[in-house]
Design goal:
Number of strands: 0
Pfam family, one: ATP-synt_B
Order of helices and strands: HHH
GO molecular function, one term: proton-transporting ATPase activity, rotational mechanism
Largest sheet: none
Family: Belongs to the ATPase B chain family.
Shape: rod-shaped
Transmembrane segments: 25-43
Distance between the termini: 162 Å
Number of helices: 3
Structural class: mainly alpha
Radius of gyration: 66 Å
Helix content: over 70%
Strand content: under 5%
Subcellular location: Cell membrane; Endomembrane system
Oligomer: single chain
């Protein structure tokens, strides 16, 4: 019926040259009903979706900002740890160098002590060998002196014989050496 009066109103309006007040009110009411239906079924849900989208984007922005702050914090912590590790490594290297220097000095000092001990030992052995040689020469000189004395006693020597005896003695000492 409503449709019939709308169609009739439109047909009557076409036949009349003036504006029909009932038709205008009817069209205004239809327009307002249409606006309310749009508000209830279209505008409300669209605004709800837009609100949800706005909240989602705001949450994503907040989350991204939190992640950025956390990343910056972690980066700063990593830099501090790296700096600390470098400091520790430098300290370890410095300690190793000083330990190496101490060991080098200890090794050199020990080598010098060993060399000095070996030198002293060699000098002592040389001295002992020298003493043995001197003792052996003394013994030979003694026995040769006794031998010469016995030969001198056996015969009285002339000056020539005495020189010959001394030369023989020197020659014997040279051969025994």
């Amino acid at each position: 019926m409503l449709l019939n009066s709308f169609v009739l109103g439109a047909a009557g309006a076409a036949s009349h040259d003036g504006i029909n007040g009932g038709t205008a009110i009817f069209q205004l009411v239809i327009f307002l009903v249409l606006l309310m239906l749009l508000k209830k079924f279209a505008w409300g849900p669209i605004m709800g979706i837009m609100k949800q989208r706005e909240e989602f984007v705001a949450n994503e922005i907040d989350s991204a900002e939190k992640n950025r702050i956390e990343s910056a914090k972690l980066l700063e912590e990593q830099r501090a740890l790296l700096k600390e590790a470098r400091t520790e490594a430098k300290e370890l290297i410095d300690n190793a160098k000083s330990q190496g220097e101490l060991q080098r000095e200890t090794i050199i000092a020990d080598a010098r002590k060993d060399a000095e001990r070996l030198k002293n030992s060699a000098l002592l052995e040389i001295e002992q060998q020298k003493e043995k040689a001197v003792t052996a020469i003394r013994e030979q000189v003694s026995s040769l002196s006794v031998l010469i004395a016995s030969k001198v006693i056996e015969k009285e020597l002339s000056e020539q014989d005495q020189e010959k005896l001394i030369n023989d003695y020197i020659q014997e000492v040279g051969e025994n050496r």
